[in-house]
């Protein structure tokens, strides 16, 4: 059988991975509540998933630099498979927590998939290649939750079980068709665990980029966790007997708009724009668009028009679509060739930390004022934009 191109292989790896995660999103709260979990505990299940990504991403990245991308991808996909299967078979809340922790540990492999693209593309082509990962994410977050909602009607464990099936397909695909792309793997056992010295060796350019990732993802996570409450407050009559279903439908519509737009932007537009614009230009432009979009959300809420409000979903996806692949490309270009996996993984770890800080802060901010999560998010994004002035063109940074 013909070996697929690295871009197609990574696209399918990430798509199947994200679909498996997205499948479980609609049913996870109900699985937890089935074991007597409170609302706060349900939130913690999502937090433990991101926590394991934060802790393990640099470990997997560092190991992939030593032993190669293929064995690390196989190992982590097997963990994801085990995590989803355990979720489906869970008989207690503790077992469900362990399952999500295991799945989060496996899902910390996105940087290793990015490193496959870094290994197989020239510096000038890396950001365009990274855009395909964003497209896979967007498509996965459209298909996964939609399919998960359908499967849930058949059995509340079906989404997690099908997520395990997707992980199995992913494992077999990598095992059969993905060759090793890291040409100079090391077999020694020294320095396999990341240290503070490893972080300091990454250089100022990479530290600036990682800091902007943390600020951006925190701001975006604040929006994601608050948007449903915001929609409920502005467009749902609390006295309606179907208030919960209406709020869920409108929130789903908003997120689908974001997902579809992000897929189109990263799959087509950004790849085209990067032919004529630098990564830094799109990186900064994306931050600006996100900041303005977050400021616009309260204004559209004040207008009372949900159709206008959906425009903010389009612009949020546009800004995110400009930022993410440019950021990944810049991180790859700023990382030493011998530490591609580690540099990309530390950036992924910063993103996971943002997905911990954002959700844990969103509820408190919303309780202070419904507009607070979006205005705080806009402020964080503006700080990231100011910080981005210290980031130089990735191809100049490597010379």
Task: Please give a structural write-up.
The protein has 399 residues and is an all-alpha fold. The chain has two domains: 1-178, Growth Hormone, Chain: A; 202-399, MFS general substrate transporter like domains (Growth Hormone, Chain: A), CATH 1.20.1250. It is built from 16 helices and no strands. It has helices at 6-24, 28-33, 39-67, 69-89, 93-106, 110-120, 126-152, 158-177, 196-200, 204-235, 243-273, 279-303, 306-334, 340-368, 372-387, 394-397. Helix 3 (39-67) runs antiparallel to helix 14, helix 4 packs antiparallel against helix 5 (93-106) and helix 11 packs across helix 13 (306-334). The relative contact order is 0.16. The model has no long low-confidence stretch (mean pLDDT 88).
CATH architectural arrangement of the largest domain: Up-down Bundle
Number of domains: 2
Helix proportion:
over 70%
CATH superfamily of the largest domain: MFS general substrate transporter like domains
What would the keywords be for this entry?
0% strand; mainly alpha; Growth Hormone, Chain: A; 399 residues; globular; 80% helix
């Amino acid at each position: 059988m013909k070996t697929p191109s690295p871009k197609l292989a990574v696209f399918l790896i990430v798509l199947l991975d994200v679909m498996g995660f997205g499948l479980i999103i609609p049913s996870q709260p109900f699985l937890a509540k089935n074991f007597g979990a409170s609302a706060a505990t349900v939130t913690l299940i999502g937090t433990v998933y991101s926590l394991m990504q934060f802790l393990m991403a640099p470990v997997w990245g560092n190991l992939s630099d030593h032993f190669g991308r293929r064995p690390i991808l196989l190992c982590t996909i097997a963990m994801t498979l085990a995590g989803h299967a355990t979720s489906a078979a869970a008989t207690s809340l503790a077992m469900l927590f362990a399952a999500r922790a295991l799945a989060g540990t496996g899902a910390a492999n996105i940087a290793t998939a990015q490193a496959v693209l870094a290994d197989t593309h020239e510096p000038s082509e890396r950001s365009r290649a990274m855009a395909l990962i964003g497209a896979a994410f967007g498509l996965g977050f459209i298909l996964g939750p939609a399919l998960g909602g359908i499967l849930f009607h058949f059995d509340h464990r079906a989404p997690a079980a099908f997520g395990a099936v997707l992980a199995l397909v992913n494992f077999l695909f990598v095992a059969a068709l993905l060759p090793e792309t890291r040409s100079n793997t090391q077999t020694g056992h020294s320095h396999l665990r990341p240290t503070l010295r490893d972080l300091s060796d990454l250089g100022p350019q990479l530290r600036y980029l990682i800091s902007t990732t943390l600020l951006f993802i925190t701001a975006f996570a604040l929006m994601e966790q608050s948007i449903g409450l915001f929609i409920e407050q502005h467009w749902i009559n609390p006295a309606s007997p179907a208030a919960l279903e209406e709020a869920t439908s409108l929130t789903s519509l908003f997120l689908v708009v974001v997902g579809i737009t992000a897929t189109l932007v990263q799959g087509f537009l950004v790849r085209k724009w990067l032919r004529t614009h630098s990564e830094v230009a799109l990186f900064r432009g994306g931050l600006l668009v996100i900041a303005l979009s977050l400021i616009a959300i309260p204004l559209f809420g004040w207008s009372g028009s949900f159709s206008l409000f959906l425009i903010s979903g389009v612009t949020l996806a546009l800004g995110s679509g400009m930022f993410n692949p440019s950021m990944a490309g810049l991180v790859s270009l700023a990382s030493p060739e011998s530490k591609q996996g580690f540099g990309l993984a530390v950036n992924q770890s910063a993103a996971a930390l943002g997905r911990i800080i954002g959700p844990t802060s969103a509820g408190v901010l919303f309780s202070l004022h419904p507009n607070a999560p979006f205005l705080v998010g806009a402020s964080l994004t503006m700080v990231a934009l100011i910080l981005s002035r210290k980031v130089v063109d990735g191809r100049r940074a490597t010379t």
